[in-house]
Amino acid sequence: MTDKLNTFILSIDWSSHTGLLLLVMIFFVISFILGIIFQSLYRKAHRQMLSPKEWREAQRRRFKRKFFKKRFKPHHAALACVVLFLLSTQLLPKINSYADTEEDADSIVCSSPYIIDGDTFSCGNTRIRLYAIDAPEMPDHCRKGRRCTPGNPFKSKEYLEDLTRSRVVCRALEIDSYGRTIARCFSKGKDLSCAMVEAGHAVERYGRLNC
């Protein structure tokens, strides 16, 4: 369990929206815990300053204020909705991506694969085409009559190389007409297909992404 937690923490890109959201949540949790500790210390010190009768009276007044005071306000509900929305759109996809990176018997795993272009690489003896994307073709690779993706193929290739400098885990989906394995691939918790499209180095094509 500890190893999986460490792997999950290391897989998080703390500079991303998800990472920033987690940092904010951690900050509020720590602040809440520290607030409870300081309140407990304050009450202990306050009790030592009062006589037993004064302390009972102070507790009675505190209970009445706490019981009768309206603490729930509309903006609290709005804040709760915002937090739930952020969790559903940012944290849950991250958890799902982490689950996809878990290696099993059917996974194709390699470290620092050989990159052919922005959507294709070799993972050991397996040539893999990233699912549902199309990157710019290398010079003279665009067949006549084919509508190839515009852009800089060298920058696209370099970006995929940067994304795959560590362990890559792929889940095979099918074999295309060229004998390549169409797969969803992940590295450091990132879906490589989504990362290439989000960076503008590929377009969504031949399938549908759910980033």
Specify the structural class. Answer: alpha+beta
SSE pattern: HHHHEEEEEHEEEHE
**Helix share of residues?**
40-55%
Distance between the termini: 27 Å
Cα gyration radius (Å): 26 Å
Topology:
Elements: H1 2-11, H2 17-49, H3 52-68, H4 74-100, E1 107-111, E2 114-117, E3 120-123, E4 126-130, E5 133-134, H5 153-163, E6 167-175, E7 181-187, E8 190-191, H6 192-198, E9 203-204
Helix pairs in contact: 2-4
Task: Write a structural description.
The protein is of the alpha+beta class. It folds into two domains: 2-100; 107-204, Beta Barrel (OB fold (Dihydrolipoamide Acetyltransferase, E2P)), CATH 2.40.50. It contains six helices and nine strands. The mean pLDDT is 79.
Features of the shown structure:
50% helix; OB fold (Dihydrolipoamide Acetyltransferase, E2P); 7-stranded mixed beta sheet; 211 residues; 2 domains; alpha+beta; 9 strands; 19% strand; two-stranded antiparallel sheet; 6 helices
